[in-house]
Amino acid sequence: MDRNTRAVAAAIATLHAAIAHAQSAPGGALPSVTVEAERAGDQLLPELQAERDAIPGAVSIVEGEELRLRNVTSVADMLRYTPGVWAASGSTGDSTFLSIRGSNLDATNYDGNGVKLLIDGLPVTAADGNNHNRDVDPLSMRRAIVARGANALTYGASTLGGAINFISPTARDGGPSEVFVNGGSFGQWQGRFSAGGVSGNLDALVSAEAKRSDGFREHQKQERESVYANAGIQLAPTVSTRFYVTGIDNDQQLPGALTRAQFDADPRAAEKAAVAGNYRLNVRTARLANRTVWDIDENSSLVAGISYENQSLYHPIVYAPPYFSLLIDTTQRNLGTTLRYQRRSGDHDVLAGLNYGNTTVEGGNYSYVPGGAQKITTRVDNGADNLELFLVDRWKFAPQWTAVYGAQAVSGSREVRNIDVSTGAVRNPQGDYDSINPRVGVIRDLSSSSQLFANVSRLYEPPTLYELDDDVRGNNATLKAMRGVVAEVGTRGATVFDRNSMHWDVALYYGRLDGEILSIDDPNAPGTSLSTNVGKTIHAGVEALMGASLAVDDAGAHRLEPLVSITLNDFKFDGDANYNNNRLPAAPRYAVRGELLYRHASGFFFGPTFDIIGQRYADFSNTYEVDGYTLWGLRAGYTAKQWEVYGELRNAGDKAYVSYFSVRDKAAADAAILTPGSPRALYVGARFKF
């Protein structure tokens, strides 16, 4: 019996042992009740509040309905007002740099590690932790749950940044049949059609989408078609199962990066090598998943799920003839499973769970001539698996007090097998990664709708296959997993007074890491990176979201609705031999985003939006500074029972700014590393529900 088989057997034994003490969670959701609530004004309805309030740490919930009233083409758009998150888009809609609590602050968007992405509780992040070219469509979800940092342990998220779980709409829970269209600047248009229904014990919902964009830069076109479908069967009064099917065909050009002088001269230009080499990011994705729920009795249930995904990548990314060119042509296959058992017994609410994932990557790296010959240089045959076990108890030990404690066990393996075609030499770094990550927290209910919370948790994140492959040493040595401890305190809640209401969510955290895995863009082969374990680092910050709905007349028909999201970051080396106490690059010192809407009871709304972003460094040496920026815009719309329209003006001042960039050890003044953000743009959209 091999190591993983023994681990699975131990997990099953753990689940059986917990049966007498556990209660069910929604399939793949956080350990709490199923959420079917929408946002009502400023306040969360009871079911949604119960989901959030079961966690002694920062958790944000993004409602899909709200996304259809502004221009949303990427995860960066979706997470715009989520505190603690730095998400930036600059290439095309699907290319988003994502960092939560300082994850992924390195060669920037190369493998997108540090945050575990799930759909209906089943992973779309690979088993090794990478999100490379992952296609997640915010408009295909009913809501998203963003569990920041160690608050995602019960997702099996061995990641510094936590997890995001995208919950699909269904015909049974109110997923609408609808037609949705939007379009605007730079040739963007998007059409979406959804239809579904319920018949007895059966229900089904299917959505088909097409999206096109010319982009605001040269060589930035995108064409994407996708289909999302799910069908449910009520097998018995207490047993239901649901199947999910996803197909995505995404072709996009990449405009590359600019030097500072090129950015100043024309931020809409493309990198010359990107045009000459026809840099692209073409991905074909097919995914099938199933989730089954057994409500054993009123206090317990069992959830089981499985998913399989096949993703083909065609990715010309480096073209510097006659010295070097690189085209990546690989197929990635991901298998994911989950099993959760939960029971409420007296003052205890115990969850036991198991997640297992397996990923293989096959194909090769090629030298190429655009539109001509391709020659394989390296054969790639990589693999990873990851097993997570967790046991969590929520003990209500006093009327207003709940203790939340438990642990997660992680066992994973990584193997990179690269064969140099010209010499037959094999590079084969491989390693096993095992850890037990305890967590303890407490929740103090101040009222029925407000809380204080605190927790101390262990952080743990093994390397991805890309990081092992890019190890600066270039031999068969393997990187260590990063480890650390984080403490967090905060408060959240909502209150109503007269005809007004307000809500808040504030968290402060301080974490110390040892062996954080960081990478820099290889100056001799831009587009590839060099990875290493560094010494000690600090990840600390303040996250706050505050909003209100304020009546400006006696009847409450006219209202002002301010919303502000504030993120303050302190990410830095801690006495490093090379970098002393330098700041970590890529994430800004602060990000303040918000809006002030006027809303009328008839359904009309309008108001300004703003983004205030602080300064960043583009290198570990802190010699290359990227300026902060301030953007402002306008939103307006009208909502009725069956239809709605919106308009959004972004970057109204036409400010030239840097969205994200590649990270260097010490960036030269003429380094081609900058990705510009979008100039002034206007978008409109409409939806009809039937």
Automatic annotation (TrEMBL):
<keyword id="KW-0406">Ion transport</keyword>
<keyword id="KW-0813">Transport</keyword>
<keyword id="KW-0732">Signal</keyword>
<dbReference type="InterPro" id="IPR012910">
    <property type="entry name" value="Plug_dom"/>
</dbReference>
<feature type="signal peptide">
    <location>
        <begin position="1"/>
        <end position="22"/>
    </location>
</feature>
<dbReference type="InterPro" id="IPR039426">
    <property type="entry name" value="TonB-dep_rcpt-like"/>
</dbReference>
<keyword id="KW-0410">Iron transport</keyword>
<feature type="domain" description="TonB-dependent receptor plug">
    <location>
        <begin position="54"/>
        <end position="163"/>
    </location>
</feature>
<comment type="similarity">
    <text>Belongs to the TonB-dependent receptor family.</text>
</comment>
<keyword id="KW-0408">Iron</keyword>
<keyword id="KW-0998">Cell outer membrane</keyword>
<keyword id="KW-0675">Receptor</keyword>
<dbReference type="InterPro" id="IPR000531">
    <property type="entry name" value="Beta-barrel_TonB"/>
</dbReference>
<keyword id="KW-0812">Transmembrane</keyword>
<keyword id="KW-0798">TonB box</keyword>
<keyword id="KW-0472">Membrane</keyword>
<feature type="domain" description="TonB-dependent receptor-like beta-barrel">
    <location>
        <begin position="248"/>
        <end position="651"/>
    </location>
</feature>
<dbReference type="Pfam" id="PF07715">
    <property type="entry name" value="Plug"/>
</dbReference>
<protein>
    <submittedName>
        <fullName>TonB-dependent receptor plug domain-containing protein</fullName>
    </submittedName>
</protein>
<keyword id="KW-1134">Transmembrane beta strand</keyword>
<dbReference type="InterPro" id="IPR037066">
    <property type="entry name" value="Plug_dom_sf"/>
</dbReference>
<dbReference type="InterPro" id="IPR036942">
    <property type="entry name" value="Beta-barrel_TonB_sf"/>
</dbReference>
<dbReference type="Pfam" id="PF00593">
    <property type="entry name" value="TonB_dep_Rec_b-barrel"/>
</dbReference>
